[in-house]
Amino acid sequence: MIDNLDAGGAEIVAVNFATLLHNLEGVEVILVVSRGGVDGQLMEKIHPKLKVELLHKRTVFDYKAFKKLINIFKNNDIKLVHAHSTSFFWPTILKPFFKFKIVWHDHFGGKINNLGIRPYPYKIFSLFFDAVFCVSHNLLKSNRRWLLNSRKSIFWMPNYVTNNTAVGVQEKNNRIKTIICVANLRPQKDHLTLIEAFHMLLEQASDIQLLLIGNISDEKYFEQINELIYAKHLADKVQIITNNNNPWMYLHQADVAVLSSKSEGMPLALLEYGYCGLPVVCTAVGEMPYIIGDDRGWIVPYGDSFELSKALAYVLANRKIAKERAENLRNYVATNFSEDAVRSKLMEVYNNILINK
Fold first, then answer.
1. Would strands 177-182 and 208-213 be described as parallel, antiparallel, or unpaired?
2. With bands split at pLDDT 50, 70 and 90, how would you rate the model's confidence at 48?
3. Who contacts 307 (Cβ-Cβ below 8 Å, separation ≥6)?
4. Do the domains 177-336 and 9-160+338-355 match in fold?
């Protein structure tokens, strides 16, 4: 279950997991989408034989949508609900009336305060969770401390990257070095610091361009990005591509990939960077330091445009080291964030909670 089918990290993971389960023999899967769906960017990526139910929920107390969810439970022998992000609310209400288990999949890198405490409703609803999946070790630590369900039922569950083809890839322009950032346009991703860093980098290298790929999640923030680009006279150096659910065609044309986020869970973009064999510079938030380690890329403090610029300059100037670390990241992603690795861990948890009635 997921709130929508926009091309965000949690939504992509929900579709990936539903597809993974659909491909298993003897497993019946229904992908329930609370809001929207038909016009969602991920709709076209769903397996044609995977059953999808759209609730068309408009408000928290949309009775018509809630009634449709009740009918889904009445008409199907549902044993387990895997609820991503905020979609857990309605299933927890229905749990006392139907015999099923709830797994909550926590994707929120930015929903915890500086003390590691979640908003209070999460704590109350955790009483209904039979298991919790956390996409980062920070979330794992926080949830084991603050949620009310057993610590033993809270697990780290990695995202995984699928084998996508880069449709539409054109010949690379070797005269221009491309820095790419795949992140939806919202304040959490902090494109502003990246643009400031890029502006500094231009003082050392003029043969570079910055490519920002992501959906517009916050119109006001999108305006701030454009205002900064024009204030720094970067209109001919920075390109923004929105409403694109296939970043692969651009990743294969890039020289270095970056994430300048203020907070994260486990960004799928980082795994995609690794899958494509790109050198990576990212901030020390969420799961990113664990994935990058000491020899698979470069980590900088978030909000520090100077350090970000310096790291990007180093990567562009030291291609041999950059290539070595990119290859290390590629191998690490292939080993630890593959569909096979995630499937094994997922089914182990599912089977355990279904057995313990």
1. parallel
2. confident
3. 300, 301
4. yes
Half-sphere exposure of 126 (CA within 13 A, CB side): 21
Is the whole-model pTM more than 0.70?
Answer: yes
Fold observed for domain 177-336? Rossmann fold (3.40.50)
Tokens 């401390």 found at: 145
Per-residue pLDDT tens digits for 51-64: 999 999 998 889 99
Q: Where are the domains of the chain?
A: 9-160+338-355, 177-336
CA 292 → CA 106, 271, 299, distances in Å? Answer: 21, 10, 7
Q: Which CATH architecture best describes the domain 9-160+338-355? A: 3-Layer(aba) Sandwich (3.40)
Strands (E) across 168-279 are located at: 177-182, 208-213, 238-241, 256-259
CA atoms of 276 and 264, how far apart (whole Å): 21
Sheet-wide strand order for 80-84: 80-84, 101-106, 131-134, 154-156
In angstroms, what CA-CA distances link 30 with 13, 49, 52, 162?
Answer: 15, 10, 6, 20
Query: What is each CA distance from 87 to 93, 191, 223, in whole angstroms?
Result: 11, 28, 30
